Input
Amino acid sequence: MKKILAVVLMCALLTVSGCQIGGREIVVTGVAGNRQVFTIGKKSCDIREAKVYLTNYRNIYGTAYGINLWDHDFGNHSLEEYVRGVALDELTKIFCMELLAEQNEVTLTDEENKKVREAAKEYYGSLTDSEVAYMDISERDIADYYRRYALAQKIYHYLTESVNEEVSDDEARVMEVMQIYVTSAKNAAEVASKLAAEEDFAAVAKNYNEKPAISVTVSRDELPPEVEEAAFELDNNQVSGKIETADGYYFIKCLNKYNVELTEANKSKIVEKRENEVFDNAYDKLLVSLTSSFHEEAWNAIDLALDEELNTNSFFAVFEQYCAEI
Output
């Protein structure tokens, strides 16, 4: 599940110029029946739930280090466009994942439902009368929204729990190396001659290397196949011979064939990538079967209400506090 991150600098804005779910267009309609903002399959998101997400994202993204970003000029875009885009993207994914949970008969246990209710009680209790009135919600509504969010989290774990997390050290291994890359055969021959004469690798690299950096860390699949094969066979302080590729010539000196800290971090990245691939496959299959509609008038009618009394921003934080382990 996506974590809620603080905004330090707003370098790019997400402009909603047409709604999509997983790359598939949603039918846009002006019909806002029953105060619904969108319908996906048999699920509908109403204005109240949309307001909870919009209000919280508005306050989460509205300030950074005490700076009011609502007053900032973003050129052709606005912070409101960004907030609306983030909220709509999150909501549509949550509703799709709830459908995916139903399809796989994944439900919450009694204990998990208890955590959801506790979270709802705390969050609802933190709201002012003005916030409750604006969002037009009850504690039971918040529990329903949290239950949907928890199901989305649980279906992700359910679908990815079978992923083999046993990534070998060698597969994840990160090396520290120095490299020399040249494009001409003439320079490659000169470099090979100097290294054969045991000249200092760094000094030769300084005079010949055509890459931006000499000292780099590398993992599997980051180097051309021929270079990777040779580099990952090197021991510490060992220097490769000339390695010819389609684009040029490499020489590699191994400084540290196994960086423990970076290797462990890379293991986590590999596992996460595999989990995402498994989940995306199931998610994409579901999307093919879905019909959906976006009720544009209802969505656009929601005023983000730049009111100083509407400061709630803890909807996601409270969920994490109570339901992170679901």
Notes: DSSP finds twelve helices and twelve strands in the chain.
